[in-house]
Design a protein that fits this description.
- α5 crosses α6, α5 (about 85-100) crosses α9 (about 150-165) and α6 (about 105-120) packs across α9 (about 150-165).
- The strands form 3 sheets. Strands 5-7-6 form a 3-stranded antiparallel beta sheet, covered by helices on one side. A two-stranded antiparallel sheet has the order 1-4. Strands 2-3 form a two-stranded antiparallel ribbon.
- A hairpin with a 4-residue loop joins β2 and β3.
- The chain has helices spanning about 1-20, 30-35, 45-50, 70-75, 85-100, 105-120, 130, 140, 150-165, and strands spanning about 25-30, 50-55, 60, 65-70, 175, 190-195, 195-200.
- About 40% of the residues lie in helices and about 15% in strands.
- Keywords: Hydrolase, Membrane, Transmembrane, Transmembrane helix.
- It comes from Metabacillus litoralis.
Amino acid sequence: MKNLNKTITIILSMLMIAFYTISPTLQINAKTAKSFETGDTVALSIEHYGNYKVGQNSIELSLGNKEAVDFRAALNKTDQALSISKEEKALLARLVHAEAKGEPYVGKVAVANVVINRVEHEQFPDTVREVIYQKNAFQPVQNESIDEAADDEAENAVTEALALNKSEDKSLYFYNPDTATDEWIRTRDVTKVIGNHVFAI
């Protein structure tokens, strides 16, 4: 049994290293598929996922309630990310830093996602810079706190939001209900609440 487990471990390690040189197809359940799509690092475990079969150009895991998911497409989801310049990415990180300072990391990702969603929405400008500098859109632009350098967490949050910009979260607004003075924003449909921010469409 130990030799079998060792052999399986070696095979899986080689497959993970070589996945860019083949076109594998995985049979995985919906929960596992979601973990690939969100960019998580996935360690394949035979005990957890069940039996597997290696073909010339494919890898199949035998599971119940399975869905076919393209392995390479899932792991390379960042190829679908919104393409922005280095300067715009830095600008967005500064906005996230200013707007979500003290908020949980997931809240910072959500703030960045709002800007990305606006870029892709027909009612807003078409670039990150134009969205951020749209009149009265973001308070840090008005009080110039956007000029403060972003920290690593804000930069990482932007990177993650860009990689996941095809997510189901289509929030276009966020606000702090304790400080917001615009009554209109409170009429928007709430999508989620993270920390001190309410997100809405």
